[in-house]
């Protein structure tokens, strides 16, 4: 076994090196504190491997993303979202019979409990749909109090989570615009069902345009997993205390909502609209993003892991062109986005820091073309990420190295002082 040496106060320590199937080496510091008294200091966990995982591989320097070994370029645009979800969760592509049964179960389990439908009436009219989504997903487990018990059927929870997340999303939209709810059908694909539930009227048949169904499948697959990102790590963190899968995933939805993570797709559109309203002077905004005294950042740019390009953004840029052309849409925000990208990629500030467009840069323009309202963009990200969160939850629950996640800290507060008795009024 390979080891690294740590020399501290003239004492030498051997630290084991572990490597995964793609040979990325890591120091195994599990015994570090016991043997040296030291902990590591790594804010943002940029150098910390929190687990071993066999789900998704990313090589950020080479712009590689693979689900269960399959390159993202071979999945997005070629398979249905639900087939890719099966792959991510069970580790292999389904047979045709398995796929049809899986798709049917996702639909049959997509009805939210009739009492839970009433919950929609009680949210504030100002509630953000991510707020509603996290609360509703958390509430599902209240209808299954025996979750985690002896005869519990985990597959059914998986079907419910993937099936119901789109129902909750579509219903919260329909509620916000005062339209009656539309229910899914077993003869529709996952994405077709979602589009139907969003846009159909009960008064007439709604034929889901193929171009929209295929584009949505591709978008959801691109968002499906991204190894130990903020929301997935949140799901694992909560799960490590033995919380149920609905509670864990609900926490992940809240983590995703932030604008540095999934909320960036909504923030990109808001930014592009702001630039359009401000005379389309995109160069001014590139300059603003570089200023240290200005909190403005180029939303949809930069990534913790990708230091070359984000393969998802490459796929999306082409798809946006193709889909908008097929749908006959000309979106002025797309021109602004392309101009921003061109200027930023030639600018030393972005070159030196290796900042490239990420998955959120072009996704919003595609959602917009599909008729999805801006405040629903991050909800769409959550629908796509659901199989990823589930796969990680399941992997973690079977991990022999599982311990409750409980990082340490470097304390920087007051040293010992004594309380002087004070009489407070
Ligand atoms: N615009 C301008 N400057 C940036 C940007 C940006 N979008 N992103 C990073 N930088 C600068 C940052 O100021 C820092 O500069 P300096 O070294 O001079 O202090 C340097 O680049 C390194 O950035 P960092 O913030 O230390 O990098 P990080 O790995 O901690 O953060 C990030 C990654 C994605 C949060 C960040 O790049 C960012 O805030 N991007 C904008 C928000 C966004 O698009 N988020 C979506 C991420 S991808 C999808 C997802 O995760 O959901």
Task: Please describe what this structure looks like.
The chain has 425 residues and is mostly helical. Among the domains are: 3-65, Single Sheet (Rubrerythrin, domain 2), CATH 2.20.28; 70-233, Citrate Synthase, domain 1, CATH 1.10.580.10. It is built from 18 helices and six strands. The strands form two sheets. Strands 1-2-3 form a three-stranded antiparallel β-sheet. Strands 4-5-6 form a three-stranded antiparallel β-sheet. Strand 2 and strand 3 form a beta hairpin. Helix 7 (154-177) runs antiparallel to helix 18 and helix 9 crosses helix 18. The structure holds carboxymethyl coenzyme *A (CMC).
DSSP strand tally: 6
User: In the CATH hierarchy, what is the class of the domain at 70-233?
Assistant: Mainly Alpha
Corresponding CATH superfamily of the domain at 70-233? Citrate Synthase, domain 1
Tell me the span between the first and last alpha carbons: 65 Å
CATH architecture of the domain at 70-233: Orthogonal Bundle
Query: Into which percentage range does the β-strand content fall?
Result: 5-15%
Q: Helix count?
A: 18
- Which molecules are bound in this entry? carboxymethyl coenzyme *A
Biggest β-sheet: count, sense, barrel?
3 strands, antiparallel
The residue ranges in which pLDDT falls below 50 over 5 or more consecutive positions are: none
Shape call: globular
Alpha carbon gyration radius: 23 Å
What proportion of the residues is helical, as a percent range?
40-55%
What structural class do you assign from the helix and strand content? mainly alpha
Mean pLDDT: 96
CATH topology of the domain at 70-233: Citrate Synthase, domain 1
Run of helices and strands: EEEHEEEHHHHHHHHHHHHHHHHH
Give the spatial strand order of the biggest sheet: 1-2-3
């Amino acid at each position: 076994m390979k080891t690294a040496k740590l020399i501290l106060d003239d004492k030498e320590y051997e630290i084991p090196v572990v490597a995964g199937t793609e040979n990325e080496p890591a120091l195994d510091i599990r015994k570090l504190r016991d043997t040296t008294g030291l902990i590591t200091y790594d804010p943002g966990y940029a150098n910390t491997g929190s687990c071993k995982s066999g789900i998704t591989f990313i090589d950020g320097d080479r712009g590689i993303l693979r689900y269960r070994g399959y390159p993202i370029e071979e999945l997005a645009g070629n398979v249905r979202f639900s087939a890719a979800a099966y792959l991510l969760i069970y580790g292999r592509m389904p047979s045709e019979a398995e796929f049809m049964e899986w798709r049917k179960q996702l639909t049959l389990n997509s009805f939210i409990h009739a009492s839970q439908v009433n919950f929609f009436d009680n949210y504030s009219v100002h509630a953000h749909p991510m707020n509603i989504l996290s609360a509703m997903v958390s509430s599902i487990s209240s209808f299954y109090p025996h979750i985690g018990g002896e005869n519990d059927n985990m597959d059914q929870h998986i079907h419910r989570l993937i099936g119901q997340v789109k129902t909750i999303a579509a219903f919260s939209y329909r509620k916000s615009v005062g339209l009656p709810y539309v229910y899914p059908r077993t003869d529709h694909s996952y994405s077709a069902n979602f589009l139907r539930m969003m846009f159909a009227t009960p008064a007439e048949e709604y034929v889901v345009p193929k171009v929209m169904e295929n584009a949505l499948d591709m978008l959801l697959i691109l968002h499906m997993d991204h190894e130990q990102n903020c929301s997935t790590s949140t799901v694992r963190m909560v799960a490590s205390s033995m919380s149920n899968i609905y509670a864990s995933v609900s926490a992940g939805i809240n983590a995703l909502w932030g604008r540095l993570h999934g909320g960036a797709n909504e923030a990109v559109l808001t930014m592009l609209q702001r630039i359009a309203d401000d005379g389309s002077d995109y160069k001014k905004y590139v300059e603003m993003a570089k200023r240290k005294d200005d909190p403005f950042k180029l939303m949809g740019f930069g990534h913790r892991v990708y230091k070359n390009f984000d393969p998802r953004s490459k796929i999306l840029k082409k798809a946006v062109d193709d889909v908008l052309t097929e749908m006959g849409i000309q979106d002025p925000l797309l021109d602004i986005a392309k101009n921003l990208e061109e200027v930023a990629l030639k600018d030393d500030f972005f070159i030196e820091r290796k900042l490239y467009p990420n998955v959120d840069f072009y996704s919003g323009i595609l959602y917009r073309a599909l008729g999805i309202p801006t405040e629903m963009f991050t909800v769409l990200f959550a629908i796509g990420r659901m199989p990823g969160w589930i796969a990680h939850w399941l992997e973690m629950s079977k991990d022999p190295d599982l311990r409750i996640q409980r990082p340490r800290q470097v304390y920087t507060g007051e040293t010992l002082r004594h309380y002087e008795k004070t009489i407070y009024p």
